[in-house]
Amino acid sequence: MMILPTRWIWVGIAALFAGHAFGFEQVLLVQRNMVRSSHVYTYHEEDNKPGGGLFIFDLEKKELREILASDEGLILDANLHYDGRTVLFSWKREMSGTFQLFTINIDGSELNQITDHASNNFNASWLPNNEIVFLSDRKPAFAYCWKTTTPILFKCKADGTRPVRLSANYLNDFTPSVMDDGRILYSRWEYVDRPAIPIQSLWTINPDGTKLMGLFGNRILSPATFMDAREIPGSSGKILCVMTAHNRHCHGAIGIIDPEKGGNAQQAIRNLTPEVGIGQVDKGAGNHIRGPYVNPFPLDSTHYLVSKDGSIELRDYEGTQIQPLLKGDANGLGFYSPQPVRTRQKEQLVASTLPSDGSEEKEFEWAEINMVDVYNGLPDSIERGSIKKLAIVQEVEKPLGIDPGRRAFGFQFPVVSAGATYAPKKVWGFATVEEDGSAFFKVPARRPIYFLPLDENGMTVQRMRTFTHLMPGERQGCIGCHADRNYVANEMTSRALALTRGVEQLEKPAWGVKGFNYVREVQPILDAHCEECHGHDNPAAGLELTGDKTDFFNISYENLVRRGTPAENFVQGATSREFKPKYVSWIPTYNGQEANILNIKPGQWGAKNSLLANVVQSGHRDDDGKPRIALSDAEKLRLYLWMDLNVPYYEGSDSNYRGNRGCRQQLPSEFAQTFADIAKRRCIECHTQDSNDQVFTYPSQFALRLDHPERNPIFMAPLPEEAGGSGKCGQAVYKTVEDEDYQKLIRTFDALEAQLKDNPRLDMLTNDGETPNATSTTSVSIP
């Protein structure tokens, strides 16, 4: 038994709200330090401190009784079984360990460890069949823009056996609970060609991992995050939850969400804590929300418990009755996860529709999708009959944690693109769309996939900037394509043409089912059709499209993607909203570009709105109207698909050079110092130094060419035309290439060339045409 210290305040329950019967006399609590993580998705790894334990607070006896002490570890959260006696909780017994699931009786007896896996296992809830749904990071994957793991939904038996992965998310899932109809309600970090800050929206899934559906907030800018979500009893589906930012810990405002008023509607959000501003759904980035509230628990249709900076309060939804129950220390040990100690009715039991329980994962597993009408939900501007195929695309996870200080082009480390897609893309294949808009096809199970509807030319007519996933053997019917994800239909209409021919195996891409690789899939097309006019020497329109490697990418990629964008002059990725790509219309995903998730106009992004695609489609005609190029349909498809995949360059998120900037950049180790020394003597008359008067500022920050380094402007400009240079300096700094300083600079590339021959960067193919394994952690020193 614990005697209440003076800093903890108890108020008799009878004095709270006269005449209201709550049906309980005790409250289950977790005592711990506040977790002040840097992001809402990092609370399982950051700012974890020991201390506290599990407690029962008796409202009538005015007693705080300790069930379990955790002096050397941290109890993160707890949930009570339907029987009102068994506590399920997440506990890091020692701070050097990981979170595991445990059970204990409310009298402190029968402590049992449920999970025993070398991973974090937490945020657990009971399912009505006595199984447990929880989060785990046992599937190796890491946040693209940070260094932490990405826990996702799992379930297991009550004793921890037969774990099953329910989610195929490659980013984080959050705080699952069970709705009255038996579905699992949870939050999910969303990231298909979107900036990093939004979206953490609300989703539902069946307990067997089937019927994934977006519930609310998948295209909302503010709030950025909805979590700690629970259905309010007797409310017909209204949700009580925390509304907060992305770049902070998990405390924020408390709100009620009514999905019936719209999946992204402002009127669907009711802020119960108006002193905390939550912004508007169509403005900002939702990253400003700063509130004290966390772990709301709906008691009934009128009242809820909540933790306010570690103190427990009892409130009503109207905001007229607010009563402190127990005061904690916001700067020390506080109280969290409040829950009434009482029996409760089990939710509806949802029977599984799968052929197996899914506990055994195989390398290749399949599911089926029945699409009634692909045009259902698309804008009227998309003509019926115009969609011929669906491309099935996977977002590929990041398999390693890296120091964010290595970032480039936004928060990419390893870099995948120049500020466009964070995730590598794998195209699994193509499905046929019938004349009536129906499709019936197999998809890979347990993969985060999305669909691109393609016209007769192979161009995407509308973006799907979200992903879905299915379980092995799942057969899912959907009405059609929707900007907010597809609404699920149980049966496909018997009149659909696709159903009459049976399920279709995907038509595999000509390049195979693997990560899309710009050097392998796009560059050969440019070499075959473009190099004659857009080669090294005097390229037409100043556009060189050769495959010469640069410090991050290659020349053609640098020119096609970065020209006309903030990334042209700023490797880290600018937050400027001015974004006018010259050749390819790609979606910027670096911070500051959040508003582009609201732009769902067909043809706004990708091939349909790109100069490069228009040139290819027209044959790049000369002044007399004669085509200059003639690409095959297969070649056009590769180019268009690359644009519609949001211009990936690398096929994976691993690297042979994990210690370099962006885990990719290659620079000669002696280059910067050598150049600075020469510049002080020979360039200072025309160019200025930076503020510290020590390091000469190289005038172009666009790219450094590694192949044929003599073609870099830094070598060409000081060299007169008659000596093979461009003469752009206006005077012959170097009269010939034999100049001692010129040769000194050129020689700085020799060591890098030798190193890359022994340990290629992942876009530098070996002689057998394969990408080398990413096993080395060798780092070129970065000036």
TrEMBL record:
The lineage of its organism: Bacteria, Pseudomonadati, Planctomycetota, Planctomycetia, Pirellulales. InterPro entries: 6-blade_b-propeller_TolB-like, HZS_alpha_mid, Multihaem_cyt_sf. It holds the Pfam family HZS_alpha. This is Translocation protein TolB. SUPFAM superfamilies: Multiheme cytochromes (SSF48695), Tricorn protease N-terminal domain (SSF69304). Residues 768-783 have a biased composition (Polar residues). Residues 761-783 are annotated as: Disordered. Residues 385-482 form the Hydrazine synthase alpha subunit middle domain.
